[in-house]
Amino acid sequence: SNDELRDRIQAVRDSLGERLLILGHHYQQDEVIELADLTGDSYKLSQLAAGSDDCRVIAFCGVHFMAETADILANRPEKLAERGGERVRVILPDMAAGCSMADMAAIDQIEDAWDQLSEVIDTERLIPVTYINSAASLKAFVGRHGGIVCTSSNARAAMEWAYERGDRVMFFPDQHLGRNTALGMDISDEQMPVWDPYAPDLGGSTEEQLQSSKVILWKGHCSVHQMFKAEHVAMFRKQHPGIKILVHPECPREVFELADESGSTGAIIQAVESAPAGTKWAIGTELHLVNRLKQDHPEQEIHFLSPVVCMCATMYRIDLAHLCWTLENYAAGNPLNVIAVDEETAKWSLVALERMLEVR
Ligand code: 13P
Ligand code: SF4
C-alpha cells in the first residue's frame, strides 16, 4: 500500500539524511509531490540541481531529459572539485519516463539537417536554441555550435541572446514554443519554415523559404499541450463570462493567442496564487498540476481547459513503488536507474546550459 511505501521511503530518507534530495516536477502525481523535498518547473529544478551542495544522490521525479540535465549541472567541474571528485548520482525512478517531444529531435536528424542547411544558408550565422526538453546529445550539439538552451520561462531571453550573435535562429524541438516566442518578439513573419526531419529534402521547405526567414522551427510538439484547441477557449468564454484563460506556451498558436495569460508551469502557479478569491480560470496545462491547483485554491473557480484528459503519461510513470524500489536499492549499495551523461556530451551541454543560467 502507499502508506507502507511512504514508511519505507522515509526509512531510506532517515538513513541517508542530507545526502538524499528528492526533486519533483509539478506534473508529478500528488503522492510523489508530497514526498519531494523540493518541487519546481524545469527551470527551477535545473537551478536546484546546479546549486546542490550536501546531497550525493538526487532522486529525480520527472522525465529523462531533466535527470540528464541534473547530472550535468550537479557534476560540473567546479562542483566535482568542491566535493573532492565525488559524483552526485542522479536516479530516475522509472527508466521508461521519457518525453515524446524530446524524442522527436534525434541527434542524427539534427546533424543531417545542419548539413543540408549549410548548402543553402550560412550556418555560422545560424544560432541553435534548444528547449531544455531535449536529449543531452542535442544540448551538446547546441553548445558546440554557439547556441543556448532555454526553458518555457526564459525562451524569449534566450532567443534575444541568440539574435545578438547571428542572423537566424533554429529552434528545437517544440515548434509551438518557438513560434509563440518569435511572434511575441516580432522578429519573424507569419510563416516560419518548420523543418520536418522525415521530408525528403530541406526539411520540406524551399531554399527561398529558408533563406528569407529569421526563424526556422523544428517539427516537434508536446503530445499533452497540443490537445488544447481554440474551440475549448471559445466554449469556456461562452459558458463562463469573465473567465480567464491561462495556458502553457507549448500550446498551439491559436490557443496561445486567444489566452489571457501564459507562462511556464511555475508562472501558472504564481498567477493563480496571486489572484483574488473568486477568480475564474480555465487552465491549459498538464492535468495533475491543474487538479492540484483546484484542490489548493478552493477560493477560486478552476477548470481544466479541455473536455478530454490531457496528462503526461511518462511523468505519470513515476510512482511511490518505483521511488521506493530505487531508493532502497541505492541505500543497499546497489544503485539502479542511474542517469550519467558521458563526459564529452556533458562538457558541451554544460556550455549551452550555463548560457541559459546566465541570461536569467
Ligand atoms: P516547464 O516545467 O518549464 O513549465 O515545462 C513544462 C513541461 O512540459 C515539462 O516537461
Ligand atoms: Fe514531454 Fe509534454 Fe510530457 Fe513535458 S508534458 S514531459 S513536454 S510530453
UniProtKB/TrEMBL annotation:
Keywords on record: 4Fe-4S, Cytoplasm, Iron, Iron-sulfur, Metal-binding, Pyridine nucleotide biosynthesis, Transferase
Annotated GO biological process: 'de novo' NAD+ biosynthetic process from L-aspartate
InterPro entries with a match to the protein in the record: NadA, NadA_sf, Quinolinate_synth_A_type3
Gene3D superfamilies per record: NadA-like
EC number from the UniProt entry: 2.5.1.72
GO cellular-component term (any): cytosol
Cofactor (UniProt): [4Fe-4S] cluster
Any Pfam family matching the protein: NadA
Locations listed in the record: Cytoplasm
Keyword Secreted tagged: no
Metabolic or biological pathway: Cofactor biosynthesis; NAD(+) biosynthesis; quinolinate from iminoaspartate: step 1/1
GO molecular function: 4 iron, 4 sulfur cluster binding; metal ion binding; quinolinate synthetase A activity
Superkingdom of the organism of origin: Bacteria
Catalytic activity annotation: iminosuccinate + dihydroxyacetone phosphate = quinolinate + phosphate + 2 H2O + H(+)
Residues that bind iminosuccinate: H25, S42, Y131, I132, N133, S152, H248, P249, E250, T265
Amino-acid positions noted as binding [4Fe-4S] cluster in the UniProt annotation, renumbered to this chain: C99, C222, C312
Cofactor binding: number and manner: Binds 1 [4Fe-4S] cluster per subunit.
Family: Belongs to the quinolinate synthase family. Type 3 subfamily.
Its biological purpose: Catalyzes the condensation of iminoaspartate with dihydroxyacetone phosphate to form quinolinate.
Name under which the protein is recorded: Quinolinate synthase
UniProt gene name: nadA
